[in-house]
Amino acid sequence: MEERPALERMNQCEKGHVLLAALMLIVMLGIAGMTSLFLASQDGPGVSAMREDNVAQQLADGAADMVMSWFHDPSSTPTTIAELLAKRQGDFASGPSFFDATGRSQFIGTIDRPDIFLRASNPTDDQVLNQPTNGLFTSLRGLGRILSVKVYGPLQPGLLSTVEVTAATVDPRAITRTVQLQLGTLSIPAVRAAMQAGQSLGALQPGGASPVLVHWGDQRVMGNLAVQRVEDLVLKSNSVPVTGQSYDQMLSVQDRWTEYWIGGMVSVIAPPPGQGANPPLADNVHLHQYPTPGVRLDQWDYDSLKKLALRWGTYYRLDRMGQLHPQGASDSDQGVTPAEALESQAVGDHRGLVFIDTVDGQPPHVDNMGTLLLDTDYVEGLLVVQGHVVLRPRAAGKSVPALSPSPPGAQSLGTRVPVQLSGIHFNGLLYAAGAIRIERSARLYGAVMAGQSVTTIGTGDVIEIWYNADLAQGLFRGLPVVYRAPGTWMAKY
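^ thats the sequence. predicted structure below, dont judge the formating
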């Protein structure tokens, strides 16, 4: 009889412990909840500050990208600093460069005395930094402002410059952040002539006239040049209107910029009555330029271009059948046709740098160069073919906006005349280590470089070239003029 009350007392004791534990748990949960609410109320400003800090940093980073765009597109560069961003080194033989003969950058300023210093406190600079008519900061003005941009000498040898940007948010706290990075630059030789050929153009025989017609730039021919008539040589005249007309639409073949630099002689297949094959020529035709003083063909090195394409462009190997094989393709790969790989569907569909290698992937020589058939309607890009090229455009081409070169002695972008070119089949640079054969007339805006000659299978087929003067400054669409040097970005404060 004594055991029952004892059991009841034990059960009551256990229930009391459970109740106490439950009460303690409720109290602990309440404390945790109150703590969470307190921390949440305190963390709101912290999260907001982090967000504003991130916005300020991204604004500064975006402004650094804007500075990089000034190197690539002269039309976007503020006129007050355009001359400072242009290549100011180099020489007549090597072309313009950012570096002198010792490899020293043209940017030599310091953080305290930069080469370029734009400040929002200056109304003119503020217009550039925070109120552009188009571009990134049109849409971001509600988030913050760019306070300053500095461009000065590189901190590491071999690089181009240092860019430092400070930005602030529009938040009442006006959080300010500064980012710093360094720029590298691609070493790509400028292309300073509309047409460059490593051998003769044309031959002194019926139907053997050169098939090359050039507007707005020079012809540089290592060997001889043969034309049908004296009148087929472009006469240089500053009074000629700048239009997109083809030479077959003109009463006389004239241009403001064309000069001939011929290693040997100019021969006329059908000379004027009473004159021989070498009649007197106009002053813009320069003969006997080889070996001295030299035709000065621009040199595009095989190994350097290949490395550039593997990092910044597209790489193909050309087989004996004319098919293209991408980098890393297996031996069983059937390849693709040039049209499938290269054709641009519309103006603006740019292929960038496309490097088409030899059959065996070794530097070009007489036995390892394949032949690329370019039978597309329209191509935009920098096409570097380590072999031969056949041009056979299958349609009428595209209408392309273009800018003429600046008048002699002027460098301002505003002096270049906008022109609409019709029937363009190739927009960019066409380079062939071997020969180029024209099987159907083609028009090109940019430049052509041939290691050997340019020939045709028909007397009426020609390639007509309008030179893009941007190439003389080393501005190649699809390739960066400058880039962020890896490992140099840092947030300073």
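Helices lie at 3-72, 82-85, 123-130, 136-140, 302-312, 338-342.
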